[in-house]
Amino acid sequence: MKEKMYQRDLAYVHDVGFGRFAEGAAAGVLRILRAAGICGGLVVDLGCGSGLWARRLTDAGYSVLGIDLSADMIALARKRVPEGLFRAGSFLDVDFPDCDVITAMGECFNYTFDSRNSRSSLSRLFRRGFRALRSGGLLIFDVAEPGRAQDSTRSFWEGPDWACLTEFVRDERRQLLTRRITTFRKVGQYYRRAQETHVQQLYRVSELAGDLRKLGFRVQTVRAYGKLQFPKAHAGLIARKPITSERKQIKITRP
Predict the structure, then answer these.
(1) Backbone angles phi, psi at 26, to 5 degrees
(2) What is the pLDDT of residue 156?
(3) What is the per-residue pLDDT across 31-55, written as a single tens digit (0 to 9) for each?
(4) How does pLDDT run across 17-34, given as a tens digit for each residue?
(5) Pairing of the two strands 42-46 and 63-68
């Protein structure tokens, strides 16, 4: 079962008020791609949101296929990146094309909007991604870990035409983090109120790294994308598909 999420008003609020993670991560992740010798090609962006990262990718010369469960987010992404290809759907259902990079930034693997999401379903996604990635390709993502958001129970943010109140509820036994989100968006002279509930399954990054290594990836754990430092109980994984001898030979003989 797939829940509705990031509908019209929250999609807008997230785009105009909470894009700092995608914007902050972009420079660091682009450096990771170039350091791996991937300076072009197709990037599959899972949980692409409103297309902030996709915009940076296309500006840097990459092609982008973005996937997001929110139709309202996809509409924003198509407007921001008209040259990109975007599809509304669950990342668990992606039929990966041959690609050079797969990204999933902003804790998107934690969300349980698709009730099938679990560590085992992620492992199957990793397997499909490994098969689709070209030699030397990268899978880059970050996750929320146990202990996330333990320092606060409520937070409030506001902008010129919106406000957002979030209540955090933790289930230590099942390692779940629930965000109860109330938004107020100005429409004409009045503010429209909307509510959503987002549930995250928290994962230990060491366990996901082990799952990736079993599939053949070479894995590095990071606590930042370049200058963007992650908050407490938040980690990233850079998983690389080994370079085949054929690609090594190509690299050696290239002028």
Answers:
(1) -55, -50
(2) 95
(3) 999 999 999 999 999 999 999 999 9
(4) 999 999 999 999 999 999
(5) parallel
Mean pLDDT of 195-211: 97
pLDDT score, position 255: 31
Q: SS in 3 state form for the chain?
A: CECCCCCHHHHHHHHHHCCHHHHHHHHHHHHHHHHCCCCCCEEEEECCCCCHHHHHHHHCCCEEEEEECCHHHHHHHHHHCCCCEEEECCHHHCCCCCEEEEEECCCHHHECCECCCCHHHHHHHHHHHHHHEEEEEEEEEEEECCCCCCCCCEEEEEECCEEEEEEEEEECCCCEEEEEEEEEEEECCEEEEEEEEEEEECCCHHHHHHHHHHHCCEEEEECEECCEECCCCEEEEEEECCCCHHHHHHHHHCC
Cα gap 190→213, rounded to integer Å:
53
C-beta neighbour count of 37 within 10 angstroms: 11
Q: Read off the tokens for 210.
A: 């082990």
Phi, psi of 108, deg, nearest 5: -65, -30
- Centre a 10 Å sphere on the Cβ of residue 15 and count the other Cβ atoms it contains: 20
- Alpha-carbon gap, residue 175 to 82, rounded angstroms: 39
Provide the mean pLDDT of the chain: 94
Q: What percent of the chain has pLDDT over 70?
A: 94
List the beta bridge partners of residue 198. Answer: 179
Phi, psi (degrees; rounded to nearest 5) at 69: -75, -20
d(CA 99, CA 101): 6
- Does pLDDT of 148 surpass 90? no
| Inter-residue contact 226 to 214 (CB < 8 Å) | no
